Amino acid sequence: MGRPREFDEPTVVAAAQQAFWAHGYAGTSLSELTSATGLGKGSLYGAFGDKHALFVRAFDDYCTDAVAAVEADLTGDGPAYPRLVAHIRNAAESTIRDAERRGCFLAKGSAELAGQDEAVDQRIRAAFARLTELFTECISAAQREGDLDAALDPRRLAATMLATLRGIEALGKAGADAETLRAIAETTVALLPRA
Fold this sequence. Notes:
Layout: H1 9-27, H2 30-37, H3 41-48, H4 51-74, H5 80-97, H6 105-113, H7 118-144, H8 154-173, H9 178-191
Helix pairs in contact: 1-2, 1-4, 1-6, 4-7, 5-7, 5-8, 5-9, 7-8, 8-9
């Protein structure tokens, strides 16, 4: 019988996630992972297999949390349109508060590994598909409630919204100032096709 683990797995994964987020997959060395997690190489590999498996686990956890945060913003009681508008504004404010300009780990992982790593590709596709679905559902609800133009395709508008929010994050990472990011959010809100 093996020895029981003497560490908290979610804490270790979260620490590894921070290292990968800061340095990227290729840029994160084994020594940085052992330093970040407090585990030796043998314990790290014994628990997670290898660097790639640990990255996939950390990336998957991030995607799950990111999608859950959007779901919390876009679903709930009350009218859908105000939830949609609040989410757009919150995305800009969150980007502004990112003083280290780390951006989104989902976007960073996509930029580095999309098209090269099937395990990461699957998680990227699943996350973006679910985000598109959440926006589509919220937009459809706002259309049913009479707040958005019912003639428009909610899925196309959802994809446009998602692209705009990804753009806000990218511009924030590149150093765009708060006034610019807020202006993009407000212009996006103003361009929503009202009923």
